[in-house]
Design brief:
The protein is elongated. The two termini are 26 Å apart. The chain is α/β, with parallel strands linked by helices and 237 residues long. The protein has a five-stranded parallel sheet with strand order 2-1-3-4-5. A four-stranded antiparallel sheet has the order 6-7-8-9, with helices on one face. Strands 10-12-11 form a three-stranded antiparallel sheet. Helix 5 crosses helix 7 and helix 6 crosses helix 8. It contains eight helices and twelve strands.
Length: 237
């Protein structure tokens, strides 16, 4: 994932320890020139008191042509109560932000939210060409990202919501490895995360339902999963 951030100081160290890296840019530079969609996946901004326009920053950035999903970080010292934080979250989201997190948020939560934001950005981009085909000699897998329909050899495949989200993320990231953390973020929106092994459970169910088309999903051991446009390796569930 490619992250553009206006964060400074200790929070950057927190990001580094979380294994999250990106390009640092001042808020003014971000405001003055909207970054290209294909250069970054997520915009991470500091909305603490005195930083940019605080909780109203997303409205300003979006009005200036920004299209990246925006995650805001609020300094814990400014959070007087959980109720106050919930109100701040509501304001930030109402202004066009995706998530508002505390600066002390756990690495797991931070990673999941960034992964979810990146997925949303990829899906928005993918919907410009909403139908994806994956073909081999004896099978054709069709995924329609707008109607959320999946067919194998023109026969409909009935997936649960979570199973479809797994297929959706693989489709929009065709040719790229999708980590289990990214799946968790996409499936659960970054909050109340279950054990990461649930990803393997969903992939197993998806492969069984796709039948012969499961050959397009490859396990990358120790990293995650990848979907290829043509089958290269057939994997066991």
């Amino acid at each position: 994932m490619k992250i553009l951030s206006t964060m400074e100081g200790k929070f950057l160290e927190h990001l580094d320890r979380s294994g999250i890296f990106g390009e640092i840019m001042s808020y003014q530079d971000v405001y003055d020139s909207a970054p290209e969609d294909d250069l970054y996946d997520v915009l991470l901004i500091d909305v603490s008191d005195g930083k940019a326009e605080g909780l109203y920053t997303p409205r300003t950035l979006l009005g200036n042509g920004h299209k990246l999903p925006i995650i805001g970080i609020l300094d814990d010292l400014e959070v007087e109560s959980e109720r106050g934080f919930e109100e701040a979250q509501a304001t930030f989201i109402d202004q066009g932000g995706l998530y508002l997190l505390k600066s002390s948020s756990s690495p797991a939560l931070l990673k999941a939210c960034i992964a979810q934001a990146a997925s949303i950005g990829k899906i928005r981009e993918a919907q410009r060409e909403p139908v994806r085909y994956f073909r081999d000699v004896d099978v054709e897998l069709k995924i329609d990202l707008r109607s959320a329909n999946v067919t194998v050899n023109k026969l409909p495949i009935h997936l649960t919501v979570h199973e479809y989200l797994v297929v959706e993320l693989l489709a929009v990231r065709t040719g790229a490895v999708v980590t289990k953390e990214a799946f968790l973020g996409h499936l659960y929106s970054g909050f109340d995360l279950p054990e990461i092994k649930i990803v393997d459970v969903f992939l197993c169910k998806v492969r069984k339902k796709l039948g012969p088309a499961s050959k397009f999903i490859e396990t990358v051991w120790g990293r995650g999963y990848i979907m290829r446009e043509t089958a290269e390796v057939q994997n066991a569930a």
